[in-house]
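Extended Data, panel c. Modelled sequence:
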Amino acid sequence: MADSITTEQRLVGGPRPDLDLTQAEWQSSTQGVGDVQVAFVEGYIAMRNRREPEIPAVIFSPAEWRAFVLDAREGAFDLT
């Protein structure tokens, strides 16, 4: 699985490992709003739709996750 992925690849968005998410501890917003859940697995961040967990999760490297969170905080994904 992620053993063949180097730390550098993980940080810069290299190839994605085939993560086993069956035992992942999925977390929802502390405010209880929205349908997004995240899990931290083997140095990666997985994100899925809480209402449709059978749909494959999106996998982020730490650098990608940081960029996503910073953009979200700045309103880059505000569709209103």
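The helical segments are 7-12, 62-73. This feature is highlighted in the accompanying rendering.
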